[in-house]
Automatic annotation (TrEMBL):
Residues 244-317 form the AMP-binding enzyme C-terminal domain. Belongs to the ATP-dependent AMP-binding enzyme family. It comes from the Bacteria. The keyword Zinc-finger does not apply. It comes from Cognatishimia activa. Its EC number is 6.2.1.3. Pfam families: AMP-binding, AMP-binding_C. This is Long-chain-fatty-acid--CoA ligase FadD13. The keyword Acetylation does not apply.
Amino acid sequence: MGFVITNHLCDLMPGTTQADASIVVAPLSHGAGIHQLVNTARSVKTIMPRSAGFNGDEIWSLIERWSVTNVFTVPTIVNLLIDDEAVDTYDRSSLRYIIYAGAPMYREDQKRALKKLGPVLVQYFGLGEVTGNITVLPPSLHAAEDGPDVKVGTCGFERTAMQVSIQNEKGGMVKSGETGEIAVCGPAVFAGYYNNDEANAKAFRNGWFLTGDLGHLDDEGFLFITGRASDMYISGGSNVYPREIEEKILQHPAVDEVAIVGVPDPKWGEVGIAVCTANTAIDADALLAWMDGKVSRYKMPKTVQFWPELPKSAYGKITKKLIKAQLVEQGVIPSAQKDTAS
């Protein structure tokens, strides 16, 4: 934990001192709890909102009152904060670091946040098993506009003293740009799952911890996450990674959120279903027509559904397991698939 705290201070919020202030806007049972230990190590004051749930006006008013400098949160809560009208009511000039993790942040959401808040976003990729320490994308590498030098979709480079590799199914290192499983080693990696030899045998290989996430490294060592291995589906013999398609769909101005899941199909083996929330009326045919030409034909979702909201975990992450469960209830997925949904 001493290493983790030092690592967070080096990579996520350098220059933090007792003059800083932090506000809690995410459950302390997860990464936010680690973040508060980091603040405590530097005698940073922590502000706890009174509201039991999200209250944008309260959060922004406390940021002004206490001159809050750092926040740990997840992309869903970042979106709620910038969409709340109170964001323009209170002074937020003290903010230096809004650190987000726990789920990928879609590019369109990044742009909105940067245009509203300025260069304060810090992304990190990590898991509980490595106490949040894998990669970092600092404020200087977040860009509000796309350009030839902007690495769209990256979650950053290796954290201090941590190592990342992309491996094939046999444990071999794949070439730059090739997709494989993301593996990590270093001082933040846990010793193993308690009293669970079977889980440890699956999680560790040749000294590397296997994250279960898929991705690739570019020539400069920046990591790009394709998605969870369990999210990938095979359509017509080709691997389909939903995140790439979700990024495209979110570029449509009517779409607020989207999750794509693979479901059985008698012809193609599996096909994708896109489940969206929308801010204005749009039908499935119109969205699919708009998508035509933006992704390869085999990657196109077969159908689109619009729901009032997408199910989320207590930590604010869209939960595809619950989406699949609802599709089972609708009869879209055979009930036998329910137990294997992930």
